[in-house]
Structure formats: structure tokens, C-alpha cells
Amino acid sequence: MSDDLGRQCRTIWARNVARFWPTSDAETFLAD
Q: Which domain range does residue 25 map to?
């Protein structure tokens, strides 16, 4: 249950990053 929830949250988070941030900005954010 917890593993499925964690994977779902990461997937949603990744989709939101891709949607709202240009790739360069997302890479800078992740680098920090």
C-alpha cells in the first residue's frame, strides 16, 4: 500500500514538474 502510494506521488510530482517548468528550470531545481 505505502509503496504504491509513494510511486503514485512521485509520478504525479514528475508530471507537474514537466508541465509547469521548462526542462532547464526543472534541472536547476533538482540540482539544488
A: 2-31
Grid coordinates belonging to 10: 512521485
Sign of the CA dihedral running 15, 17, 23, 29: negative
Instruction: State pLDDT tens for residues 1-32.
Output: 678 888 888 888 888 877 777 666 666 666 65
Domains identified in the chain, total number: 1
pTM recorded for the entire structure: 0.39
In whole angstroms, give the CA distance from residue 9 to residue 17. 12
Using an 8 Å Cβ cutoff, are 29 and 21 in contact?
A: yes
User: Rounded to the nearest 5 degrees, what angle is found at the Cα of 4, between the Cα atoms of 18 and 8?
Assistant: 15
